[in-house]
Design goal:
Blueprint lengths: L15 H10 L21 H13 L12 H17 L7 E5 L2 H20 L5 E5 L4 H10 L2 E5 L9 H5 L6 E7 L11 H9 L4 E5 L7 H6 L16 E5 L11 E5 L2 H5 L3 E3 L7 E3 L8 H38 L4 E3 L7 E6 L9 H10 L5 E3 L4 E5 L8 H15 L16
């Protein structure tokens, strides 16, 4: 008897070639990231990066980083990748961290460390944290999971965090204040020195979410692009999250959570010695951890080196500059705020004579094979520009102009936004 594969596992196995053919066919409706037609989700560093990652992944396909005493190579890989990242972010000699599965886990770890430090060092039993409304949703997830009261504050007209609004919520229970470098929705930089100083004023942690910028801003600075202070050179910054699987071009899912000192990092680690299985310690939220993302990240960083990352970053910034200029040249469209790196938000120009329904534009683009995430409020289309989009920016802008012309004066009833998995 062969079961319906959507409802139950078949009793009989199938040949490997048939299984892989079916698996490949499932991708037919996926976004065409290899063609540069997505602005986010997957970041393509090129053939050499693919080869380095894939060969490293095969070496570590079955290894488990749950216990680095059994797999000391994974312990060394983690230490080296964390060290390289700390150096890029100007961490002091005392800086320490761990690898995680992605930006959300890195953020969760940073929030947990702040809560535990507040409890241990300041006796706080009702912890509170402060984030701008532009901060990643993972901070709200962390507050929900860890029992922290979260204060969400408005942004300024240019979409950066309003530090004065944040200051209104600071009190003796504040354990964490968050800044983004850059923030995801509009791609602008928060005023990190002011946020860090506010946190220091009550001995709270300051976490910088650089999941999007951690592997762009250091190289942009090396290339001579102006970059405001944001990393460990800013006094008061206690932790930083940076995703290697974004613009670090490693495969999913690997990120770094860095702390200024090992003492701050210790608040992140869970330790338990009351189990019949013996002593248990977990540096982040996972127990078992695949060695594949860790090894692939190590290989990609070694393959690229600083020079390789500078080259990719130069291309990314050129792509984003061309895209912003092209968008602003289309009647009826604008770019929100003044982003200068690799993220941007496409919105209707409020001063245009004929209003544009930007979600209808997004639908028209998708019919042409181009994918954007929707965001709101206000209604806009998000783009994370990367090396993936090299060589297709002019083609994209032509499709965008055609899409605007197609929907001008029309609208869509679908106002949904999605950054989710709900099935």
């Amino acid at each position: 008897m062969t079961a319906d594969r959507t409802r139950g596992l078949a009793s009989e196995g199938r040949p490997v070639d048939d299984v892989i053919a079916d698996l490949a066919a499932k991708r037919d409706d996926d976004v065409r990231w290899r063609d540069g037609r997505t602005f986010g989700l997957v970041f393509d560093g090129g053939p050499g990066v693919h080869e380095a990652a894939e060969r490293a992944a095969m070496l570590y396909l079955h290894e488990n980083a749950l216990n680095t005493m059994a797999f000391p190579s994974l312990g060394r890989i983690q230490s080296e990748v964390v060290g390289w990242t700390a150096d890029l972010l100007h961490g002091p000699d005392t800086a320490a961290g761990f690898l995680t599965s992605g930006g959300t886990e890195s953020i969760l770890c940073g929030v947990k460390a702040a809560r535990e430090r507040g409890r241990t060092e300041r006796g706080i039993t009702a912890p509170e944290m402060i984030v701008a409304e532009s901060a990643h949703a993972a901070f709200h997830k962390a507050a929900h999971l860890f029992g922290i009261t979260l204060h969400k504050t408005p942004v300024r007209d240019g979409w950066t965090a309003d530090v004065e609004a944040m200051a209104e919520h600071v009190n003796a229970n504040t354990v964490l204040i968050v800044g983004s470098a850059p923030q995801y929705p509009q791609g602008v930089m928060d005023p990190i020195p002011e946020i860090a100083a506010l946190a220091a004023s009550v001995d709270a942690n300051c976490h910088v979410d650089a999941c999007m910028g951690g592997f762009v801003l250091p190289f942009a600075e090396m290339l001579g692009r102006p970059v405001p202070p944001w990393d460990f050179r800013v006094e008061g910054v206690s932790s930083i999250s940076a995703d290697i699987h974004k613009l670090g071009y490693a495969p999913k899912g690997v990120s770094v959570i860095l702390h200024r000192t090992k003492e701050l990092r210790a608040h992140q680690t869970f330790v338990f010695d009351g189990w019949l299985g013996g002593f248990y310690a977990s540096p982040n939220l996972q127990g078992t951890r695949s060695g594949v993302p860790m090894a692939a990240a190590w290989a990609v960083m070694q393959h690229l080196g600083v020079d390789g990352y500078q080259g990719l970053t130069r291309t990314v910034l050129d792509n984003a500059d061309a895209m912003r200029a092209g968008i602003r040249a289309i009647d009826g469209l604008t770019v929100l705020g003044d982003p200068t790196y690799h993220l941007l938000a496409i919105a209707p120009d409020p001063d245009a004579a004929d209003p544009i329904d930007i979600f209808a534009v997004g639908d028209a683009l998708q019919r042409r094979g181009w994918f954007h995430d929707r965001q709101s409020p206000p209604d806009n289309l998000h783009a994370t520009v990367s090396n993936t989009n090299t060589g297709v920016i002019e083609e994209y802008l032509a499709a965008l102009r055609d899409s605007v012309d197609e929907v001008r004066g029309a609208s869509t009833d679908d106002r949904s936004t999605g950054y989710a998995t709900l099935e």
